[in-house]
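Bumping my old thread because nobody answered last time. Still need a sequence for this structure:
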């Protein structure tokens, strides 16, 4: 069900493209420790780790979020709270309410 009445959450989630910025920092880090990469990005190590994990969301989930079609209860805070988000896309869809 589209999240038609939660414009603020949609706005917060629509900035999902910055996830790839953190991922690029990791990929280009050439063995630099997470803590140093996080410091470079101006965030804590734990937050950096959670953001990098989110850059591996299933493409259809990412597109749904960008389009504002995420489940009503999927907020930016809830997405960040999934510190152990599954890597398999089918499991992601189930955990995040897309299945």
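Sorry it took so long. Here it is:
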């Amino acid at each position: 069900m589209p999240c038609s009445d939660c414009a603020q959450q949609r706005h917060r989630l629509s900035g999902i493209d910055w996830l790839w910025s953190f991922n690029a920092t990791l990929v280009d880090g050439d063995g630099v420790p997470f803590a140093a990469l996080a410091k470079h990005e101006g965030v804590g190590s734990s937050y950096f780790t959670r953001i990098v994990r989110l850059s591996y969301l299933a493409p259809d989930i990412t597109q749904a979020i960008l389009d504002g079609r995420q489940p009503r209860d999927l907020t930016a805070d809830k997405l960040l709270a999934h510190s152990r988000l599954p890597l398999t896309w089918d499991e992601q869809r189930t955990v995040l309410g897309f299945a």
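The chain has one domain: 7-94. Let me know if any region looks off to you.
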